[in-house]
Design brief:
The chain is of the alpha/beta class. It has 2 domains: 135 residues, Rossmann fold, CATH 3.40.50; 184 residues, Rossmann fold, CATH 3.40.50. The protein contains 13 helices and 12 strands.
């Protein structure tokens, strides 16, 4: 195994622990033609030097570099790991440019491994992939979640939950609506905050709190007015970024998890929340639609304040919320537990390489 990625905290240690050779390479998110060509040439030479047979590209730049360099270097198996479809929320010339780039990557690939059924469908509809190239691991995702260990409510001591409740002044009477992720427009944050306002107007005697984990980003930024609401409203608990090693603890103070996103690949946060026995409200967007069993583990909403508010209010019934939460955890443990998805990945790689 070889790993090429932007140098960042913990990557070298991870590679060493997994017995992989790590090559750090600064990979810009933005389009930088000169640096992109240099990086592609560097990866091409790396593949040739190490006689690598299987190249897997993650994320847009990793896919672009990996598929073109792998094709030029003659790697036998070139796999696009399609996490999502950026073009879903684009229009006009920008959509055409991104779709064309993805078509080129797909043409250079021997296989396209999609993280969800709806990503498969969206990529075909946009003319990115030929269906014969597409594959999926079980019911989806690229890696699943650690549902038996890390994201297991039984493994979080009650004292830890109480410590978080005390820190943020939560009481047992509060109904806590959770969100965790990048604070950007595509996640539906503006509509979610408006939904919270609606709930307070409709249910003045109900103590509804919005518990938000994440930091605002400059790319696809949310309005300043929304940021002010998150920071200043008495009905919002805004934690900022939380260390991933502790994230499971924060799910235990939530009553329902909400992700009214405009697009996803397969939302891992939904699987984390579900594994922690939370009912989920999600949009019908690409990726999100695959992350719940409707009316069993969660419910769908339109990306409007009215629809989001109605979906949240449906879980004011504590018994219903508990029932959905139990079913949600069972759904994740059966289909998306980390060890299960890794076995699917190993089977996929063994199958395509032995078929040659």
């Amino acid at each position: 195994m070889h790993l090429i990625s932007t140098p960042m905290s913990g990557v070298a240690e991870f590679a060493e622990g997994e017995g992989a050779s790590y090559y750090p390479l600064e990979i810009p998110r933005a389009i930088k033609p000169v640096q992109d060509l240099k990086n592609m040439w560097t990866i091409y030479r790396y593949i040739r030097r190490h006689k690598i047979d299987v190249v897997i590209g993650h994320q847009s730049k990793g896919v672009l570099y990996g598929m073109i360099a792998g094709w030029l270097a003659g790697a036998r198996y070139r796999i696009v790991l399609a996490h999502g479809v950026l073009e879903d929320t684009m229009t006009g010339l920008k959509q055409k440019i991104f779709a064309t780039e993805n078509r080129i990557c797909s043409m250079c690939a021997t296989h396209v491994l999609c993280v969800s059924p709806s990503v498969m469908k969206s990529r075909v509809n946009l003319g990115i992939d030929k269906p014969r190239k597409q594959h999926i691991l079980g019911k989806g995702t690229a890696n699943g979640v650690q549902a038996l260990t890390k994201f297991n409510p039984q493994n979080v001591p009650a004292s830890v939950t109480e410590e978080i409740r005390s820190k943020y002044r939560l009481t047992t009477d509060d109904f806590v609506v959770g969100f965790c992720g990048r604070l950007v427009h595509d996640k539906g944050i503006e509509e979610l905050t408006d939904a919270i306002r609606l709930l307070h107007e409709r249910y003045p005697d109900k103590s509804v709190k919005l518990f938000v984990i994440g930091d605002p980003e400059k790319r696809d930024a949310i309005p300043e007015a929304t940021i002010r609401f998150l920071k200043e409203s008495q009905h919002v608990i805004f934690t900022g970024k939380v260390d991933y090693s502790e994230i499971q603890n924060y799910y235990t103070v939530m009553d329902v998890f909400v992700l009214p996103s405009y697009r996803e690949g397969f939302p891992t946060v939904v699987l984390e929340a579900s594994a922690m026995e939370l009912p989920v409200v999600v949009s019908r967007a690409t990726g999100c639609i695959d992350s719940i069993v409707e009316n069993e583990t969660g419910v769908y909403c339109d990306i409007t304040p009215e629809s989001i508010a109605n979906a949240i209010a449906s879980f004011f019934d504590r018994e219903k919320a508990r029932r959905f939460g139990k079913a949600a955890r069972a759904f994740v443990v059966e289909n998306f537990e980390h060890s299960i998805v890794r076995e699917h990945m190993l089977d996929f790689l063994n199958k395509i390489t032995s078929a040659r």
